[in-house]
Design brief:
Blueprint (H helix, E strand, L loop, with lengths): L2 E6 L3 H11 L4 E7 L16 H7 L2 E4 L3 H13 L3 E4 L8 H9 L4 E4 L7 H8 L6 E8 L11 H9 L7 E6 L1 H7 L5 H10 L5 E7 L6 E9 L2 E9 L1 E2 L2 E5 L1 H16 L5
Parallel strand pairs: 1-2, 1-3, 3-4, 4-5, 6-8
Antiparallel strand pairs: 6-9, 7-8, 9-10, 11-12
Helix pairs in contact: 1-9, 5-8, 7-8
InterPro entries: Asp/hSer_DH_NAD-bd, Asp_DH, Asp_DH_prok, L-Asp_DH, NAD(P)-bd_dom_sf
Protein name: L-aspartate dehydrogenase
Keywords: NAD, NADP, Oxidoreductase, Pyridine nucleotide biosynthesis
């Protein structure tokens, strides 16, 4: 048996995932859905439309961002296919979340992405075992500039350096966090999804001029116990806004799905 895989997107993450898939046995990369023609073809990867991909692929691996999940996810699940999400932030939309997780007949898998500790936190949160979770993320100021920001704030972040003190850009719930910072706070959605504490997870995003690397700190407490995790990831060499471990997380997800499907990789 061979597990046929189609990638969604072909950027810095997907191109590395494609390379990792080629090293697996009994797994075949049948192509990629891309917005810009030629991006995958230059690496010898077939560029497919959705209909062709649905005919050829068993598993879709998304590496293209929340809008791509919104565009392709419901059709993939309705076609009884498997979908592995790197952009877990898509699950912050309750309607899309229900469609993907409960709509069937296909199945969604999610990656841990750039954070860990989710297994123990998921267990601790069962039956109300946790009262609160706080995720504090510190990133370099220039990496946090968003289209909705006014010119003064954007310029302050762009300048960075010693003239800028640490600045709290956001503090609040998960849904608004991913809406305001869609490329920066997927980890908050992964955390809320794992624990099912969508309404009790607080996100704090700090622009820190001393942050050479992105740092995530998770604090959780309740009757089950008190937990704290600190994660600092190195970025992809040619994509500083992306943690390098994300690629490994996606590849691990593929291996897990392949194993559950009876495929040896």
């Amino acid at each position: 048996m061979t597990l046929n895989i189609a990638l969604i997107g072909y950027g810095a993450i997907a191109s590395r995932v494609a390379s990792g898939i080629r090293d697996m046995t009994e797994v075949e990369l049948v192509g990629a859905l891309v917005r810009t023609p030629g991006t995958a073809a230059t690496d010898g990867v077939s560029e497919l439309n959705l209909n062709d991909a649905l005919e050829r692929a068993d598993l879709f691996v998304e590496c293209a961002g929340v809008p791509a999940v919104t565009e392709y996810g419901p059709n993939i699940i309705a076609a009884n296919k498997l979908l592995l999400l790197a952009s877990v932030g898509a699950l912050a939309d309750p309607i899309l979340r229900r469609t993907l997780l409960d709509g069937g007949p296909g199945r969604v898998y999610v990656t841990n992405g750039a954070i860990g500790g989710l297994d123990i936190l998921a267990s601790a949160a069962l039956e109300g075992g946790l009262d609160s979770i706080v995720l504090e993320t510190r990133k370099a100021p220039a990496s946090l500039i968003q289209p909705w920001m006014d010119a003064d704030l954007a310029e302050r972040l762009r300048g960075g350096g010693s003239n800028l003190e640490s600045l709290v850009l956001y503090e609040g719930g998960v849904s608004e966090a991913i809406e305001k910072f869609p490329a920066n706070l997927n980890v908050s959605v992964a955390l809320a999804h794992a624990t099912n504490m969508w309404d009790h997870t607080i996100v704090k995003l700090i622009a820190d001029p001393t942050a050479n690397l992105t740092k995530h700190t998770i604090h959780a407490s309740g009757r089950t116990g008190t937990y704290q995790f600190e994660i600092t990831n190195n970025p992809l060499p040619d994509s500083p806004s992306t943690s390098g471990v994300v690629v490994a997380s996606v590849l691990r997800g593929i291996r897990t799905i392949a194993g559950a499907s009876g495929v040896s990789v």
